[in-house]
User: Fold Metal-chelation protein CHAD from Thermus scotoductus.
Amino acid sequence: MKDARDWVAHLEAHLPLALSGEDPEGVHQVRVAGRRLRAYLDLLGFRVLKDDLCFLVRQAGRVRDLEVALGGPLPEGFREHLRAELSEARRSLVALLRSPWMGVLLRALRHLPPLSKGQARKRLKRLQGRLEARFLELRAEPSLERLHAFRRALRRVRYAKEFLGLSAKRERALQEVLGEVNDLRVLKGLLQAYLVIREDPEAQRYLGEVERVLEAASKRALQGLGLAPFREGPQSS
Assistant:
């Protein structure tokens, strides 16, 4: 059974790279560490620090999402828009990581207590119950929103099991299947937000392409879960 020390050290080790912006992996690993530590709080049954970690993950996630989106071929106007958004998101993240708030958070994380194995296993069962509930909701009415909620619950169960030294091969494999869907879902949202503020026929056509690829990826993901595709495409709810 593991404690939080390794992931606190992981977070601290990747802060310089995240601050420099030289390698997107730095921000990615800050977000991963934040999510892992949030799962540790789930197993402790702590509410304290959870909002702080959520905020850190959200700020790092904004940068990471933009970096991933910019990694592929995009309409030029949309690409320039994302570059400007990324520049602003990076400034906000750097300010956060250099703030006194970050230092206080790190000090608090270093003092998290070890897990009680019995209590942690009980809390894992609760997380697994939530995952089952998300699956049943998805099975009852498949939609992108419910698939995303299932993916988030799945990730928390995986991380919790790994803290307890339990096999999470099934959860890890499912996460990989759902990862493509999530990247496309985020890209679609970024495109839609861009098209609200700017008329861009090329980006509008590209949105149609993204929606088609997203629908196909969603169908594959649902089939991997043993479920039927969305009834009315990926925008149904």
Summary: The chain has two domains: 1-115, 116-227. Confidence is low (pLDDT under 50) at residues 231-237.
